[in-house]
Amino acid sequence: MKLKELLSVSGPVPLSDLTEAQLMELQTGLALLGYPVGDIDGLIGPRTRNAWAEYKTDVFPGNPELIGLESIGMLADQLAKLAETGTHDFTSKPGTIEAIKWECKTQGIGLDTQVAYVLATTQWETAQTFEPVRESFWRSEEWRRTHFHYYPYYGRGFVQLTWKTNYEKYSRILGLDLVADPDIAMRPNIALFVLVHGFKTGTFTGRKISDYIDRDRTDFINARRCINVTDKAETIANIAKKYLSRL
């Protein structure tokens, strides 16, 4: 993603001075980096203000109410780094594992305990394949059409991206029309982004991985609430422990 609109800011200026187009670009950039901006609508709400303040706190000291060329430049550099996915090898399980580790670090899920849990979840959700799967993958598409009332927005990916609202959300963030073509979510690079972004921001259930795993605690059992309440929580926790021992 290139920040064409924001780079015209002469700043530093208050967020309220940004145009709608500049705000939408800022919201999209922050969302791509895993900051919870809410809707990408070009409007300044509390979630957008908080997301920018969180970003400034993380990477650029200064007044969180202001935005200028230096902070925009840092944002642009991080987005450029995020786009460097061309070297990922999704043709093998080890290659996908390395891609997940890279994406976690890039999006700021950097603790070994967090990475281990994301890997364990991917292993479980993909039936050990480490390949994007469809919800009820052992069934036919006609079966899904008949049995899922939210069809065609059933689960797809390394974890299950489900419901039209979530397909709409990632369409706005990624600049791709997942609503018109939900199978875009099956592309490994897209599934990778959604997997990690969802863990960081709480897209799937409203719970973030940092709610359960941070520098002070490692709760591999309740971290399952990020995906599916506590279904198979102990099994996945044990898988996470094995990954952690190898990181």
Oligomer: single chain
* CA-CA gap between termini: 31 Å
By helix and strand content, what is the structural category?
mainly alpha
Shape: globular
Which stretches of 5+ consecutive residues score pLDDT under 50? Answer: none
In the CATH scheme, what's the topology name of the largest domain?
Lysozyme
CATH architecture of the largest domain: Orthogonal Bundle
User: What's the gyration radius in Å?
Assistant: 18 Å
- The largest sheet has its strands arranged as 1-2
Number of strands: 4
- The secondary-structure element order is EHHEHHHEHEHHH
Number of distinct helices: 9
CATH class of the largest domain reads Mainly Alpha
Give the integer mean of the pLDDT values: 92
Roughly what percent helix? 40-55%
